[in-house]
Amino acid sequence: MATLLDGKKLSQKIISQLKEDIQKLKKLPPGLAVILVGDNPASKIYVSKKEKTAKELGMYSEVHRLPRAASEKEILSLIQFLNESPKIHGILVQMPLPPHIQTQFILNAVSPHKDVDGFHPFNLGRLMMGDPLFIPCTPQGIMELLKEYHIDVAGKKAVVVGRSLIVGKPMAHLLLSQNATVTICHSKTKNLEEECQTADILIAAIGQPHFIKNSFVKKGAVVVDVGMNRLKDKIVGDVDFDTVQEKVSYITPVPGGIGPMTIAMLLKNTYKAFLNTAL
User: Fold this and answer.
1) For the chain, what is the largest distance between any 2 Cα atoms, rounded to a whole number of angstroms?
2) Which of 88, 139, 152, 153 has the highest CB neighbour count under 10 A?
3) What is the CATH classification number for the domain harbouring 195?
4) Whole-number pLDDT of residue 40
């Protein structure tokens, strides 16, 4: 039976340390602004969790809720205001944005030095060069979790299923930076099951419930499930947990694995942005 990679436990440890650090500050606290456009149910839940945890830490928190019909001009105007606000050190644009909004156009407007999600081309470029300022939160959280459980990726074969800018591509670069040999798979990959079977470390970020079956993984592999899918009133991952856990050495649960780590990394990046302004 696999050992659970407990993201909830590690995130609480990280958040507890952040809280201590923030309590020692003798000036304006770190400030996080979240922009939520529309009424996507999952986004609303994520945003409320981020807001709640930020306040528990003693951070200053703002949530700007815009209607689904908000124009790009309105969103850009708000971002410009937040870029210039001395109270705000981190800006997060909650995704997905409504279809009439050009997502990357909006993300490019966030100041790279307040881009705590790490999606600005400036930050993605620095990540690729091996000199990151802000690392996208989900891949960063995965690396922290592997480190916590003393899982060394150097020399290992890592397979990342999914090629998004949010997870897949930055994840590959982080694994490469730690000397893993990396394959990125996606919807057009031929023989996907066989590719996954070669993985010492398998990262599933494809957005399809229970897509990764027992037959996809090799015995003793490490499996990280980034998926968050609703299936019959339950939240499930991209991995068929019940069958896969019997075969692998480590696996993340859903929920309680990568979700809490993503929020912890967001707050850690906000604190880092705050410290950078004080330099």
Assistant:
1) 57
2) 139
3) 3.40.50.720
4) 86
